[in-house]
Amino acid sequence: MADLLPYSNRSVVWAGVRKLEIRQQPIRVPNDDEVLVEVITTSICGSDCHNWDSPNVFRELILGHESAGLIKTIGKNVTDRFVGQCVAIEPGFSCRECEFCGRGKQNICSRLKYYGMDPTDGTLSQYFTCRASNTVPIPEDVSWEEAGSIQPLAIAVQVARRASLNPSQSLAIFGCGPLGLPILAVAKAYGVKKIVMFDIEESRTRFAESYGADVGIVTPRNSDPSQDILSFSQHYAREVIAKYGLGYGFDVAIEASGAKICATMAICMLKAGGTCIQAGLGRPMASLPLFLITANELDVKGTVRYTHGCFEDAISLLSTKKVDLKPLITSTYPLTQANEAFEAQHARRDIKIVIFNQM
Hints:
Blueprint: E1 10-16, E2 19-24, E3 34-43, H1 46-52, E4 66-74, E5 86-89, E6 92-93, H2 99-102, E7 113-114, E8 127-131, E9 135-137, H3 144-147, H4 150-163, E10 170-174, H5 180-189, E11 194-199, H6 202-210, E12 215-218, H7 229-243, E13 250-255, H8 260-268, E14 270-278, H9 290-295, E15 299-302, H10 310-319, E16 329-334, H11 338-346, E17 352-356
């Protein structure tokens, strides 16, 4: 099989802080249970940008993990995939043996590895070898730009599962960025009756409204140094709830920015018995209003990555046109301009950037 491998495999390699190099890398021959994927598109994730900007990457790593492509070669034991098939690549591969995997919680596997995260090379290459079970078939009517963005949509599906989103609910989402907007799209697809989006940038709240939010609100900054975060958040929550006729508050609040104050605001926005989902990756330590959580019997949950079936659900939402990711993809770059793509993503000039791996 080795003599049938493609001759070129340009890859995006981290070579230092904010320094990427395009290098020819060897293509690993698939084993009996693996496939070789000709990677067509890869979208840039915040964690990719973090690695790009970090001095703590300990080797010259190939970045990228949100990818899709065409199967080029299959191992002899692979019977449910075929050459030429369109697939998304699931970047997380669990041990399938630990307590968490046994409970269907592969996203918190005790030995979880992730493509593009040290020590495992990622998918920003022309070709990528992986387990066949880490590929998910995609209908041909899904565009390549959207196909490369399925993983963040799968994460949004997991958030929706954790929140048990349904048509009877009102929903507040904090953060109109690459995480909050796919969550909005999934919430709309699930029929959530009222969705209010919050962000500190007016351009982003306007975009959220154009993308389907009922209301986009620019979150004010606390300019009074004598007012603590909780008092400020409670006062602001009362104003929002009264202005938009939300009765006792929101049924669900999803924090998708990672900002400390938004975690407090999300809890303050909830009615008694409501649910808060912490989806944004914030600082290691933050204070939360424990009295409100206890007295109002709030459910506060974390969420990370995705679980079994989230990729399939995300693909179904795209193929049935219940979700349209194309408005979120604001720029595309060839693989040879990866440095420029990462600079643009880091500068927050775009919502989502997609790289075409074969260009």
